[in-house]
């Protein structure tokens, strides 16, 4: 059965944590938010425990890099509040890509601090533990895209794999 290639950005984020950040999905009965903060929009997905099945997913435009710190934080909080939040432990991982790489380190920090503060100060979201807010390099993004594409094509451990070309938006 062919796997849909439109899920590649999402799978990139999942695989990043599976391969590089072993702390994800390690606490039983945990719900995990994974946020793909791209240049054109912010995609947020909710997972339960160690599954790669999405429970819920939402999207907003523009990407957080186009917004100021307060507006970026409001966008993320608005997306989080669309979920029917479970009464279990929740973790949040946000990985940003090209749009955030165009900003200075100082402006990235302002946005990330605003997001963290807004989540921590919101009474409805206080059960969410913010684990990571980070901008990944173009090299990391490319490697993860290759892993995701080959995972979706069932060739990740095959003798022959597929190449990828990321052309941006």
Placed side by side, the strands forming the largest sheet appear as 3-2-1-4-5
The percent range for helix content is: 25-40%
Order of helices and strands: HEEEHEHHEH
CATH arch. level architecture = 2-Layer Sandwich
Task: State the end-to-end distance.
Answer: 27 Å
- How much of the polypeptide forms β-strand, as a percent range? 15-25%
Give average pLDDT, whole number.
83
The tally of domains stands at 1
Rg, Å, rounded: 16 Å
Count of DSSP strands: 5
CATH topology: the name is Nucleotidyltransferase, domain 5
CATH class: Alpha Beta
What ranges have pLDDT less than 50 throughout 5 or more consecutive residues? 19-25
Shape: globular
Count of runs of 4 or more consecutive helical residues: 5
In words, what does this structure look like?
This protein is of the alpha/beta class and 169 residues long. The protein has one domain (5-152): Nucleotidyltransferase, domain 5 (2-Layer Sandwich), CATH 3.30.420.40. 37% of the residues lie in helices and 22% in strands. It contains 5 helices and 5 strands. It has helices at 8-20, 69-81, 98-101, 105-121, 138-152; strands at residues 30-37, 42-48, 54-60, 89-96, 128-135. It has a 5-stranded mixed β-sheet, sandwiched between helices. Strand 2 and strand 3 (54-60) form a beta hairpin. Helix 1 (8-20) crosses helix 5 (138-152). The longest helix has 17 residues, at 105-121. The two termini are 27 Å apart. The model is unreliable at 19-25 (pLDDT under 50).
